[in-house]
Design goal:
Number of strands: 33
Number of helices: 19
Helix content: 25-40%
Strand order of the largest sheet: 3-7-1-15-12-13-14
Distance between the termini: 68 Å
Strand content: 15-25%
Structural class: alpha+beta
Oligomer: single chain
Shape: globular
Radius of gyration: 28 Å
């Protein structure tokens, strides 16, 4: 390893263009003859479409469902037993099932003119009762979204391991009903699509702000009924994804059809209102959770009934049951116990489809478990950290298969908690609580722990039976004639820093200067197939693939170099970008020039594949790596106003071997900001007719710089035994723990008042209401 290789805090290469405003996004692209698209979207959550009327003089500029002959609806099924299939219309023709669903597409030279056309389209609706609450949607008399189902359940999942024995063994138990609000993913750049039919090569070309170009191509081919080779998907610079840009959009399919119908390139750029109301929802869970402990305060088991609001359709490719299907295996957390039951209802409602958001189901499951553990500790009369320390999987048990059959690869969970306790200084916070605050506010401290499964592959996703299954990740690596190195990967970088970290991997093996290493990604015509960027998999999978390709290149370079140095290949080594032998040395750049420009000097037995290789990688065990962290927060709560201030925040994380600790810190800070949004601010509420109650960022609150505390980040590095360098995925972890840690801190501050918060976000209104209710109970008693 070098000071510029794996482990180096190397500044991000890509930031040079980003900070200078030289990034190129879908919104920066303008093709010859390009026109703009606007969509007519449903104003109702549930209704039959009786008629759609387009003025005759505008009909040639409008695309309706009737124009989609031969186009299939979007389908994302799973093979999980009991799953009910739904299809998502590209343009609704007879029924709409959520506000914002597409009905018509309009084309004009400018977006404003396209919106004017949309405004002249008339639709007659017959409004139907809407399912807005997932618990009411489970009732036998609830209105039905998909009548042929007979209910509103995509899937009911059950995990049961010795649950019947729990009550008899337990000395303590607590039950809590917890809920997380629906959120909207809010990347700086919304979705954007350009579609063009390239008649020269007979190919549909799609520029899309997507995390998964190859998966979008597959989905488009399924819907359009054309060969995948006739579709090229390009993802240019992408301004944040978080899972929202990991699905096939009906807008992508609609533009793909429309570009051929209208004979010109078309572009649609999502505005913020569309982002908020139409298609970026996530996180809405409900739990009724009972935790059981023995007389010593050790967790014995859990019994849970959970529901997930999945929205109206199953989104391609992850399906409607990504969250519900994972809760049963995620809920046990980092704890060692033998008794467990979890039933999860994945419920269809008249809302946009739920999508995978940074942390996916882990944020809700962590919130439910960790808040309940604090309640259990209060009942027992011990520190919440004691329940955790009594129950965590110990390092000597690693690797460890937990009650839900999750295979933890490595780590020291108790040590992470010990370091968090020390860094937050728990004894001094308790002393401060006893003294009281001069301004009358109440101080509280909260902890939360989680594991982030990352880089999970074939064995996991084939069991789910969704439309894609990851296999070997590939990298194409080649030297250029002047000794530069080109890496082509199928994953996409939209904030992860892959142009830097993958360069560090290649540099560690080949010694090529970073300035001469170039990453090519985001184009199905130029890169190997990949399921894309999701699940914190890139450093594991793409990093492993780059290493494999560079290893193969290194062997070819050494063989040519040895011949040119007139040395036996066994006697040379590759170091610092040079092949070094007993009698001399030769740079990789010189060897590359020889291959391309002076082939007459090459040995007769040279590999005819030259200095270009494609290599694949899969982890030794592909059930995933498990990074983890302990979060600790100290807050001050004003009991009159409900305002909460974060006074201190500590994160002790273990992502295995850190390829670039600076980028890891950036991932953690960004994720924590999103977690604070989940904890305190973000909520997409709906009225009884399914109308979203936030359509601007004045209504939907996001945390900004003034809401972010100064984080203390402490690193542990326990290598994974299954990955090339011992690295683990860490991109989602920061967003998982903050809602639980901060809720626990608020509840700790209010415990003497008898108030408890069990729903995120914990807004000032909810804090004041909880205090008022507690005082009312006290007065009644």
């Amino acid at each position: 390893m070098t000071d510029a290789g794996i482990g180096a805090r190397l500044p991000r290469k890509e930031d040079d263009r980003y900070m200078r405003g030289r990034g190129r996004y879908v919104g920066d692209i303008r093709l010859a003859g390009q026109q703009e698209v606007a969509f007519l979207r449903s104003p109702l959550a549930h209704a039959r479409i009786l008629a759609v009327r387009v003025p005759d003089h505008l009909r040639s500029s409008v695309l309706l469902a009737a124009d989609l002959d031969g186009v299939r609806e979007i389908r994302a099924d799973t093979t999980l037993p009991g799953f009910k299939s739904s299809t998502q219309p590209v343009l609704a023709g007879d029924r709409v099932r959520h506000v914002g669903e597409l009905i018509a597409l309009a084309v004009a030279p400018t977006r404003a003119e396209a919106e004017d056309i949309v405004a002249e389209i008339e639709v007659d609706f017959e409004e139907l009762p809407a399912v807005v609450d997932m618990l009411k949607g489970r009732a036998a008399d609830a209105p039905l979204l998909h009548e042929h189902w007979g209910d509103n359940l995509f899937l009911v999942s059950l995990t049961d391991v010795n649950a019947a024995e729990l009550k008899a063994k337990a000395a303590y138990s607590v039950t809590r009903e917890l809920r997380t609000a629906r959120q909207v993913m809010s990347p700086l750049e919304g979705r954007g699509v350009i579609a063009e039919w390239d008649s020269r090569v007979g190919q549909l070309v799609i520029w899309s702000s997507t995390q998964q170009p190859h998966i979008v191509r597959s989905g488009l081919a399924e819907c359009l009924g054309i060969d995948e080779g006739a579709i090229r998907v390009i993802a240019p610079d992408v301004g944040g994804g978080f899972g929202y840009k990991g699905i096939l959009l009906p807008e992508e399919v609609a533009l793909a059809v429309a570009t051929r119908r209208f004979g010109r390139p078309l572009r649609w750029l999502e505005d913020r209102r569309e982002n908020l109301v139409a298609g970026a929802d996530c996180r809405e869970h409900h739990y009724r959770l009972t935790a059981y402990a023995d007389a010593d305060g050790r967790l014995l088991g859990l019994d849970c009934e959970a529901s997930v609001d999945c929205g109206a359709y199953s989104a391609y490719p992850f399906s409607a049951c990504l969250e519900g299907g994972q809760i049963g295996s995620i809920l046990p957390g980092l704890y060692d116990f033998s008794h467990y039951r979890c039933r999860v209802h994945s419920v269809a409602t008249n809302k946009p489809p739920i999508l995978p958001y940074r942390g996916v189901a882990r944020t809700g499951a962590c919130f439910a478990l960790e808040v309940t553990l604090d309640a259990l500790a209060r009942q027992i009369g011990i520190e919440p950290t004691a329940v955790r320390m009594n129950s965590l999987v110990r390092p000597e048990q690693m690797p460890f298969d937990n009650v839900a059959k999750r295979h933890f690869d490595s780590g020291d969970y108790p040590e992470a908690l010990r370091r968090a306790i020390e860094a937050i200084d728990l004894p001094s916070v308790r002393a401060r609580q006893r003294t009281g605050e001069p301004d009358g506010r109440r101080i509280g401290i909260g902890f939360s722990m989680y594991a982030e499964q990352a880089g999970h592959g074939t064995s996991v996703y084939s069991a789910w039976g969704i439309p894609f299954v990851p296999g070997h990740e590939q990298c194409q690596a080649r030297f250029t004639p002047d000794g530069g190195l080109e890496l082509r990967i199928g994953a996409h970088s939209h904030g992860q820093g892959l142009e830097t970290t993958l360069s560090q991997v290649a540099h560690s093996i080949l010694g090529v200067p970073h300035a001469l290493i170039r990453l090519v990604h985001g184009d199905t015509a130029m890169t190997p197939y990949s399921t894309g960027t999701w699940g914190s998999r890139c450093m594991i999978m793409s990093g492993g693939a780059v290493a494999s390709a560079c290893d193969a290149l290194a062997e070819r370079v050494k063989k040519i170099g040895a011949a040119l140095l007139q040395a036996d290949v066994a006697s040379v080594r590759l170091e610092g970008g040079e092949v070094i032998g007993p009698g001399g040395r030769m740079s990789v750049a010189e060897i590359a020039r020889t291959w391309y420009r002076r082939p007459q000097d090459l040995p007769l037995d040279v590999d005819p594949g030259g200095l270009e290789v494609t290599a694949g990688y899969k982890a030794a065990r592909d059930t995933g790596t498990f990074s983890y962290a302990a979060h600790a927060a100290v807050v001050a709560v004003d009991t009159d106003t409900g305002e909460t201030e974060i006074l201190d925040y500590v994160i002790v994380e273990d992502g295995g071997v850190l390829v670039n600790p600076m980028i890891v810190d950036g991932q953690i800070i960004g994720g924590t900001a999103q977690g604070i949004g989940t904890a305190f601010y973000e909520e997409m509420a709906y009225d009884e007719r399914g109308q979203p109650l936030a359509s601007t960022l004045s209504d939907y609150l996001l945390p900004g710089p003034t809401e972010m505390p100064e984080l203390k980040i402490l690193h542990m590095e326990t290598p994974s035994p299954y990955t090339r360098f011992g690295q683990k995925g860490i991109g989602e972890g920061g967003a998982i723990a903050p809602p639980a840690a901060l809720t626990n801190a608020v509840n700790d501050a209010l415990k003497d008042l008898g108030a408890e918060l069990l729903m995120s976000p914990i807004t000032p209104r909810r804090i004041v209401a909880a205090i008022t209710a507690a005082r009312g109970r006290e007065a009644a008693e």
